[in-house]
Automatic annotation (TrEMBL):
One GO term (biological process): formation of translation preinitiation complex
Pfam families xrefs: SUI1
GO molecular function: mRNA binding; translation initiation factor activity
Entries under InterPro entries matching the protein: DENR/SUI1_TIF, DENR_C, SUI1, SUI1_dom_sf
Name assigned to this protein: Translation machinery-associated protein 22
Organism of derivation: Lepraria neglecta
Superkingdom as given in the UniProt entry: Eukaryota
Ranges for domain SUI1: 69-140
PROSITE patterns: SUI1 (PS50296)
Assigned protein family: Belongs to the DENR family.
Length: 159
């Protein structure tokens, strides 16, 4: 019987990551074991971290309030248009997901392209600027004052 196979499942060898939430009593108990100076430093660090987080949140909110979304209707050929939307990433939207949603909603092709200035914009086939404006204000929760519609005309070549 020396070759008996153990019936119990082997314990996993890798420790699993756990997210542990401590109650207030556990935190105060762990702090009470520290010296008085260390407790004061820990409290001061906690206050600093809270202040930094609050300041970063207000900065982000202000930047989001001031960020503009530009919807450009660009003429390709005589009666063909594409609609370019830029500035959505400042409002916390994932451009690829939004482009896919535009493609489904308007039944057209849409893609994320890089601009010459280094940013990214969504290009939607067809003249959908009014519908995109409505979507950005309603679903995207962008204030109307921060959305600007621009009509671009393709310059005719001298010839």
């Amino acid at each position: 019987m020396a070759d008996a196979v153990p019936t119990e499942a082997a314990a996993p060898t890798e420790p699993q990551a756990r997210h542990v939430i401590y109650c207030g009593e556990a935190i105060t108990a762990s702090l009470s074991t520290l010296s008085v100076d260390a407790q004061k430093r820990a409290e001061k660090d906690a206050k600093k971290k809270e202040a930094k987080a609050a300041a970063a949140e207000t900065r982000e909110k202000e930047a989001r309030e001031q960020a503009m979304v530009y919807i450009k209707r660009v003429e390709r050929n005589k009666r063909k248009y594409v609609t370019a939307v830029s500035g959505l990433e400042a409002h916390g939207m994932d451009l690829k997901k939004v482009a896919k949603e535009f493609g489904k909603k308007f039944a057209t092709g849409s893609s994320v392209t890089k601009t010459a200035s280094g940013g990214e914009e969504i290009v939607v086939q067809g003249d959908n600027s009014d519908d995109i404006f409505d979507w950005v204000v309603d679903v995207g929760k962008v204030p109307e004052d921060n959305v600007e519609c621009i009509d671009d005309k393709k310059k005719k070549s001298a010839g």
